[in-house]
Amino acid sequence: MTPKTREQQLDELLDRQAITELIMAYCNAADRHDHVKMRTLYHEDAIDDHGHFANGPAMDFIDRLPEIQAGMAILHHNVTTVNLKLDGDRAEGEVYILAFHKVKDQGDGYDVLIGGRYFDQYEKRGGVWKFSHRAIVADWAYPATPSAVRLDHPFLAGAHIGRPGPEDPSYAFFSLFKRGER
What we know:
Order of helices and strands: HHEEHEEEEH
Structural class: alpha+beta
CATH class: Alpha Beta
Number of domains: 1
Number of strands: 6
């Protein structure tokens, strides 16, 4: 195999960074319930397999997100290990995640921490990397009923408290990060 030129290595590094930023933007869009931003992350003909929530066109999944997320008091996606393989204008990724969910119910709600992976296929079209296929794989779940989340804990006294949607304090703090944008 012929060694890659420095230019090829730099191009690959830039592609890897763009895909990593795409993955992180997904987490932000999911946690902030930013469906406009979420739509910008997938190609129009992309597929999303989120198990019983949705399996088919990604745009259909995004259309259902307000309903799916309505019961979520807190969503918190954390990416850990990212394994990427690039091949020109297409790539594949196995992305490890920890996703915390505080679900509303009649009482204190309940928590579900999920350890899993995304199996991703990406394509660069018009110079922009987006998801062409994303599938969630659950490796484990850690439930807690009732919820163990306590926003009134003394460690949080005086802290800004994150929220799904446009009321999240990040929108008032940042001037460069905009709701609905990558």
